[in-house]
Amino acid sequence: MKLNDILNKTCVIGLTYFDGDNRVLKQSMLAGTVTSADEENGITVRLVKKNPKDEDSHFILPTSLAPWFTAPKGTYRDQNSSVLIADPAFLVTWDIFRTQEKKPDGDHEWWNWVARTTPPSVG
């Protein structure tokens, strides 16, 4: 699979955030359609909107296709907007690790994205 193969495809994204001691901070699920994908800028997903009048929001993922798996048929609920997405093309999962526990106020937080390469279980 190549980056161009996922353009205009729907996906459900599972994200798990960890602290510096590998404890889960939070989990979230997003859903949307891939609008662009290139090595330099990453994979941009236009997120599903709860209200059609809302402005588009986007989420950018790293370019690795290792965590992209064909999704089983079914209906998935986007936790962010409570919108249902039926029969997405892909399920995508990432683990995101905080790389520093303490940071001075005003400093940027750094996170390490690790592709989850085991197909996700559904159900």
Plain-language structure description:
The chain has strands spanning 10-18, 24-38, 42-47, 58-61, 68-70, 75-77, 84-86, 90-98, 111-115. The chain has 123 residues and is mostly beta strands. The chain has one domain (3-115). The strands form two sheets. Strands 1, 2, 3, 4, 5, 8 and 9 form a seven-stranded mixed beta sheet that branches. A two-stranded antiparallel sheet has the order 6-7.
Q: Which key features would you list for this structure?
A:
single chain, mainly beta, 0% helix, globular
> What percent of the residues sit in helical stretches (DSSP H or I)?
under 10%
- Spatial separation of the terminal alpha carbons: 26 Å
Percentage of residues in DSSP E strands: over 45%
User: What is the gyration radius calculated from CA atoms?
Assistant: 15 Å
Number of domains: 1
Report the principal-axis shape: globular
Secondary-structure-based class equals mainly beta
Oligomer category: single chain
> Number of helical runs?
0
- What does the largest sheet look like? 7 strands, mixed
The helix-strand sequence is EEEEEEEEE
Spans of at least 5 consecutive residues whose pLDDT stays below 50 are none
